[in-house]
Structure formats: C-alpha cells, structure tokens
Write a structure and sequence with these properties.
The protein has 8 helices and 4 strands, in the order H-E-E-H-H-H-H-H-H-H-E-E. The protein has 203 residues and is mostly helical. It has 2 domains: 49 residues, no CATH class; 151 residues, Four Helix Bundle (Hemerythrin (Met), subunit A), CATH 1.20.120. Helix 2 packs antiparallel against helix 8 and helix 3 runs antiparallel to helix 4.
C-alpha cells in the first residue's frame, strides 16, 4: 500500500489526479487557466534555455540540434500524413524525439538546474489527450528546423523570439485539441481500484 500511496501523492502534486473525502481519487481534468499557466512556465524556461544555448553551445551542439529538429519534423509529417495509420509505437517515438529535442537545447544552455526544471515541465501531461486528436491540424513546414536554426544562429534575440513563437503555437494547438475534452463530466471519471474508468462525456 505504501508505494501506491506515494505514487498517488506524486500524481496529485503533478495535478494529474485529485483526492477528496468520500470521493476517493480521480483523474483531474485541467482547466483552460491551468493549461495556459503550464505553458507560461514552459515559455519562461525554454526561452531562457534558448538564449543561453545561443550564447554557449558548441559548434557540434548547434549542428546536432538542427539535425534532431529535422528528424522531429519528419516524424510529425509521417504521422500527420496518415493519422489513421499512426500506431502507438510511432506516436511514442515521435513523443520521445520531440522531448529529446527540447532537452538537448536545455543541455546546451550549460545550466543543469534549468535543464532539470525543463525536464520536469516536459512530463507531457496532455499527451494522452493530444495524441488521440493527432492529425486534426498539421504543423507548419519545417517547424522545428526553423526554430533550431534560430537557436543555433548565435543571435540571442532570434533564439528567444523563435522559441517564444514555438511555445505559444503549442498552447494554441493544445487548446484546440483539448476543447472536446474540457467538457468531460468530472463526476463520472474515477480511479476505481487502480483502474481508470470514464463512463460518459458530458452533453
């Protein structure tokens, strides 16, 4: 029971579940305000990492980040081209590559504490929702490469602006894709004996 209790406490700290008297523990549906707050923190962290990367990254790190961005764009395009054929494995690979792209920029900032906070922020709270709606809209062509080139250019202001634009577009996409889920009936979503159940959507 102790490991389960500790796991549930951590999920509650990360705003993934909520507990209440006579209610037990249930999935916590984020509000639009919480989603925006999450992205505001992400913007602050990642723009600072991009600025430091522009100043401090080695030539190898700059080449590598552009190459990694191209791989992320390729995976996005493959999954968006035929969303009905996207497998759990392909979406998982896309998710990992995208996360790694942002963490590599954080690595190049040469600030371990900043990198740690970005990794925590990149726990991908909304991916389970986001993936189910994947393919509804496509990213702009060479979306990650464009950002990576600005970050790798050595110009701090360009790196800042490109990263800010990237994160804000991400917020727009999250809100667009989560809209059908934000009306879920909270009272019908529960964590029952370790099994997550969703009985119905609110009308």
């Amino acid at each position: 029971m102790l490991p389960v209790s500790e796991a549930l406490q951590r999920l509650e700290q990360e705003l993934l579940v909520e507990s209440g008297r006579r209610v037990g523990t249930r999935i916590r549906i984020p509000t639009p305000q919480e989603i925006r707050g999450f992205c505001i923190v992400r913007e602050a962290l990642e723009t600072q990492a991009a600025r430091l990367f522009a100043e401090r990254a080695s030539a190898t790190e700059r080449r590598d980040i552009v190459s990694l961005a191209a791989e992320v764009d390729r995976l996005y395009e493959e999954n968006a081209e035929h969303p009905e054929q996207a497998t759990e494995a392909s979406l998982h690979q896309l998710r990992l590559s995208h996360r790694n792209f942002h963490l590599r920029i954080a690595d190049g900032s040469s600030c371990p504490y900043l990198r740690q906070q970005i990794e925590k922020n990149q726990h991908l709270v909304f991916n389970s929702f986001y993936d189910k709606l994947f393919g509804a809209r496509r990213l702009p062509k060479n979306w990650h490469v464009s950002m990576a080139e600005s970050v790798a250019s050595g110009h701090v202001d360009d790196a800042d602006q490109a990263t800010r634009k990237h994160v804000r577009h991400h917020l727009e996409e999250i809100m667009y894709r989560l809209e059908p889920y934000l009306s879920l009936d909270h009272g019908r979503i529960s964590l029952d004996h370790g099994r997550i159940t969703t009985d119905r959507l609110a009308p």
